[in-house]
Amino acid sequence: MSATELIERFKELPPAERAEVAKFVVENDDSWIPESFRDAMADLEQDRLVDLGTALDQPYAAD
């Protein structure tokens, strides 16, 4: 099935089913998320971010 056919069939679905398909795509395909955002989320998960106020108010401490 081509993308065009899939899109046309998607348009024919009732709203609740379109929502279900959209939810599936968002949860299972991250190709639409920019690489920079994924990198930032990885930094957040590894606790490598600092609050902007802290960054501006406290001196830099080299490790």
SSE layout and pairings?
Blueprint: H1 3-12, H2 15-28, H3 35-45, H4 52-57
Give the beta-strand count.
0
Overall 3D shape: elongated
Helix content: 55-70%
- Alpha carbon gyration radius: 20 Å
List unreliable stretches of 5+ residues.
Answer: none
| Structural class assignment | mainly alpha
How many discrete domains?
1
Q: Which percent band covers the strand fraction?
A: under 5%
By DSSP (H or I, 4+ residues per run), the number of helices equals 4
Structural overview:
This protein has helices spanning about 5-10, 15-30, 35-45, 50-55. It has about 60 residues and is an all-alpha fold. It has 4 helices and no strands. The mean pLDDT is about 90. It is elongated. The protein has one domain. It starts with a helix and ends in a 6-residue tail after the last helix.
Keywords:
single chain, 63 residues, mainly alpha, 4 helices, 65% helix, 0% strand, elongated
Structure summarized in a few sentences:
By secondary structure, this protein is mainly α.
